[in-house]
Amino acid sequence: MPDPALFLSERVEALLASLSAAGRPKGTSGSPRTITRSNRGLLRCPQTENLAAWFRRCVNELCDGDPVACEIEENMAVFAYLEWHEPGTLYYASINILSTDSSLVDYYLDEDGDRRAQYLRLDLDYESLGSIFAHPLPHIHAVCHEPVARFELDEFGSSNIVIDFLEFVYRHLQRANWLNWARTVWRPYFQERVRDDFGNAMETILGAFDANDIELLRRFSDDIREMRRMIRNRKQEIVDPSRTQNRRFDLTMRQMDRELVAYADRL
């Protein structure tokens, strides 16, 4: 059983530790640590480069040719750079994720183009706000090249964008790992709510999603809302300054800026 105190995995916790401001009032952080302000441009993918070539170049220039150096899962890489100019407030963030259908080593060595991969990038950049209502702050890229549509991070009511993005990535690209973690978040709630007619309600709900059973899900609407709330609360605990023992990350963005730039009217 996963450790309920961990956020997603030990490697994700290690990533957060490497990116945290650790109390510094201003500064930068990178993962791998070779990523700095002067070379962060290496993370951008030119039109002449496909995704596999981009990954090999980043590994060669930032990881000394070792794909394991950027590994967060056996089949998933991360290249991240953060910058803050005042205590606890992000000014710039670029978190690049590559999730492959093989190990990263096999993907790196594949020169025939037989391997497939999904790319995601979180961008927060106050020096590149873009055209009105076309660049949410922050936004997600699902393709490495321009031009591309930019998507809003789905936790709109949150300033906790680094944690939210990593949870989004695992929810979509590391589904089994995300479910293992989510079960540790939900289990205490469901242990206190035994339903005689459904037994293990948590597994009943998960099974109803897999079975496309919307009628059954409607009967658990209150529980499903609570499941969402518990996930959000667990993520918030990681950055909550009042939780000094549980706080493992100390960089968020200005929520008012996120709302200001957004297209959707949810103010």
Task: Describe it.
The protein has 267 residues and is of the alpha+beta class. The chain has a domain at 11-174 and 241-261. The chain is built from 9 helices and 7 strands. Strands 1, 2, 3, 4, 5, 6 and 7 form a 7-stranded antiparallel sheet that branches. β2 (71-73) and β3 (76-86) form a beta hairpin. α4 crosses α5 (175-191). The mean pLDDT is 90.
Summarize the structure.
With 267 residues, the protein is an alpha+beta fold. It has helices at 10-19, 51-62, 104-109, 161-173, 175-191, 201-210, 214-219, 221-239, 255-261; strands spanning 27-31, 71-73, 76-86, 89-100, 117-125, 139-141, 151-152. Strands 1, 2, 3, 4, 5, 6 and 7 form a 7-stranded antiparallel β-sheet that branches.
Structural class determined from secondary elements: alpha+beta
State the helical fraction: 25-40%
Subunit arrangement of the protein: single chain
Gyration radius (Cα, Å) is: 20 Å
Order of helical and strand elements: HEHEEEHEEEHHHHHH
What is the typical, i.e. mean, pLDDT? 90
| Major β-sheet profile | 7 strands, antiparallel
Shape: globular
Give the end-to-end Cα distance, rounded to a whole number of Å: 40 Å
- Total number of beta strands: 7
Number of helices: 9
What amount of the residues lies in strands? 15-25%
Low-pLDDT windows of residues: none
